[in-house]
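Quick one: structure tokens for this chain, please?
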Amino acid sequence: MTWRSGYGLPVAAGLAAALAVLATAAVSGRASARIAEPHERGSLTAALVRAAARAQAIELEPGSWFPVRGVIDFGAADARFGALRAGHVHAGQDVFAEPGTPVVSVREGVVVERGDDGGRGNYVAIWSPETDRTFVYLHMLRPAGAGEAEHVAAGGRIGAVGCTGSCWGDHLHLELRRGRGTAGEPLDPLPLLARLALRAR
């Protein structure tokens, strides 16, 4: 099955795995991975909507854009928020796509941090005053075009999918954090991402 994001751009069938995960999601937005059997997939859409409506991140949906404008895949269990990594817990959701695929701002906001460091590669953090959440975009192909303190429109291009810093395979690592800046409590972005992809297909 092909899923489509806004403006006719395709979102890949990797969403099917996310639908299965979210069908068992708790209110916290965390879930145990479960791959849906083919006969179950027809019923996953309604389950996703019910689960996502209860999830923390769904309050951010109005005015939000899916961040990768092309064919995507949410990857395997280790790409999920909360997955165990060497010495830390994965604080975001990976969205795999071809290198150079446009990355856009999920929300209107202000750039509060940008750079190129060892692990994050080319990254930018955009704070949304309206929701008091910061969206952090990692591993981009090149440095973000917007500088610190610059305003970014919702859906405005901020970069492209790449594999800079500590990564394997071209992808966007997206973090959603409470408050302004990169040190706030991380939240699971998958419910929001799946809902945005579902809404715009």
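Residues 1-14, 20-50 have pLDDT under 50 and may be disordered.
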